[in-house]
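seq:
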Amino acid sequence: MAIYVMLTTLTDEGRKTVKTNPERIEQVNKEVASMGVKVLAQYAVLGPYDFVNILEAPDNMAMSRVAVELGSRGTVQTLTMPAVTTADFVASLKKK
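struct:
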Protein backbone atom coordinates (compact mmCIF):
# COMPACT_ATOMS: atom_id res chain seq x y z
CA MET A 1 0.00 0.00 0.00
CA ALA A 2 1.17 3.50 -0.81
CA ILE A 3 1.15 6.51 1.51
CA TYR A 4 -0.23 9.89 0.48
CA VAL A 5 -0.38 13.32 2.05
CA MET A 6 -3.56 15.20 1.22
CA LEU A 7 -3.76 18.87 2.09
CA THR A 8 -7.33 20.13 2.14
CA THR A 9 -8.87 23.58 2.20
CA LEU A 10 -12.52 24.06 3.06
CA THR A 11 -14.63 26.16 0.71
CA ASP A 12 -17.19 28.58 2.12
CA GLU A 13 -19.77 25.80 1.87
CA GLY A 14 -17.40 23.37 3.60
CA ARG A 15 -16.80 25.77 6.49
CA LYS A 16 -20.57 26.13 6.96
CA THR A 17 -20.97 22.35 6.96
CA VAL A 18 -18.19 21.73 9.48
CA LYS A 19 -19.42 24.51 11.75
CA THR A 20 -22.99 23.19 11.88
CA ASN A 21 -22.06 19.49 11.75
CA PRO A 22 -18.48 18.82 12.94
CA GLU A 23 -19.19 15.08 12.92
CA ARG A 24 -19.26 15.34 9.13
CA ILE A 25 -15.47 15.00 9.17
CA GLU A 26 -15.74 11.46 10.58
CA GLN A 27 -18.54 10.63 8.14
CA VAL A 28 -16.32 11.64 5.23
CA ASN A 29 -13.49 9.50 6.63
CA LYS A 30 -15.86 6.51 6.54
CA GLU A 31 -16.81 7.32 2.95
CA VAL A 32 -13.12 7.48 2.04
CA ALA A 33 -12.61 4.07 3.69
CA SER A 34 -15.48 2.65 1.62
CA MET A 35 -13.47 3.66 -1.48
CA GLY A 36 -10.55 1.51 -0.31
CA VAL A 37 -8.43 4.30 1.17
CA LYS A 38 -7.54 4.36 4.86
CA VAL A 39 -7.13 7.57 6.87
CA LEU A 40 -4.01 6.95 8.97
CA ALA A 41 -3.89 10.39 10.59
CA GLN A 42 -5.67 13.69 10.28
CA TYR A 43 -4.79 17.10 11.67
CA ALA A 44 -6.56 20.45 11.65
CA VAL A 45 -3.94 23.11 10.93
CA LEU A 46 -3.57 26.87 10.68
CA GLY A 47 -2.29 28.52 7.52
CA PRO A 48 -3.21 28.11 3.86
CA TYR A 49 -4.67 24.63 4.45
CA ASP A 50 -7.31 23.53 6.94
CA PHE A 51 -6.38 19.85 7.26
CA VAL A 52 -3.39 17.58 6.72
CA ASN A 53 -4.44 14.00 6.03
CA ILE A 54 -2.13 10.99 5.90
CA LEU A 55 -3.76 8.30 3.79
CA GLU A 56 -2.96 4.76 2.69
CA ALA A 57 -4.20 3.61 -0.71
CA PRO A 58 -3.53 0.66 -2.97
CA ASP A 59 -2.42 2.89 -5.86
CA ASN A 60 -2.61 6.30 -7.53
CA MET A 61 -5.92 5.47 -9.19
CA ALA A 62 -7.65 4.81 -5.87
CA MET A 63 -6.24 8.03 -4.46
CA SER A 64 -7.30 9.97 -7.56
CA ARG A 65 -10.82 8.62 -7.20
CA VAL A 66 -10.99 9.91 -3.62
CA ALA A 67 -9.63 13.33 -4.61
CA VAL A 68 -12.13 13.70 -7.46
CA GLU A 69 -15.05 12.50 -5.34
CA LEU A 70 -14.25 14.89 -2.49
CA GLY A 71 -13.56 17.82 -4.79
CA SER A 72 -16.74 17.29 -6.80
CA ARG A 73 -18.83 18.03 -3.73
CA GLY A 74 -17.79 21.67 -3.68
CA THR A 75 -16.94 21.69 0.02
CA VAL A 76 -13.20 21.12 -0.15
CA GLN A 77 -10.20 21.61 -2.44
CA THR A 78 -7.37 19.10 -2.27
CA LEU A 79 -3.67 18.83 -3.01
CA THR A 80 -2.47 15.22 -2.94
CA MET A 81 1.14 14.06 -2.89
CA PRO A 82 2.60 10.55 -2.78
CA ALA A 83 4.98 10.06 0.14
CA VAL A 84 7.75 7.62 1.03
CA THR A 85 9.42 7.08 4.36
CA THR A 86 12.84 8.64 4.71
CA ALA A 87 14.26 5.15 5.33
CA ASP A 88 12.92 3.95 1.96
CA PHE A 89 14.18 7.12 0.31
CA VAL A 90 17.69 6.66 1.70
CA ALA A 91 17.67 2.99 0.70
CA SER A 92 16.70 3.91 -2.86
CA LEU A 93 19.69 6.27 -3.08
CA LYS A 94 22.05 3.48 -2.06
CA LYS A 95 20.89 1.13 -4.82
CA LYS A 96 23.16 0.90 -7.83
